Amino acid sequence: MIRTVVNTASLLGWSWIAFHTIQAILADNPAGEDLLQVVLIAQVVCASETLQIAFGILRGDLALSFVVQYTRLMMYFITFPHTSVSSDVVKTILLAWSLTEMARFPMVLFPKSKNLRTIRYAVPLITFPMGAGTEAYAAYLVFLTTENMLLKAALGLIVLVNVVGGTVWYPGMVKKVTRSLKGEKKKAK
Question: Where in the sequence is the signal peptide annotated (predicted)?
Answer without folding.
Answer: 1-27
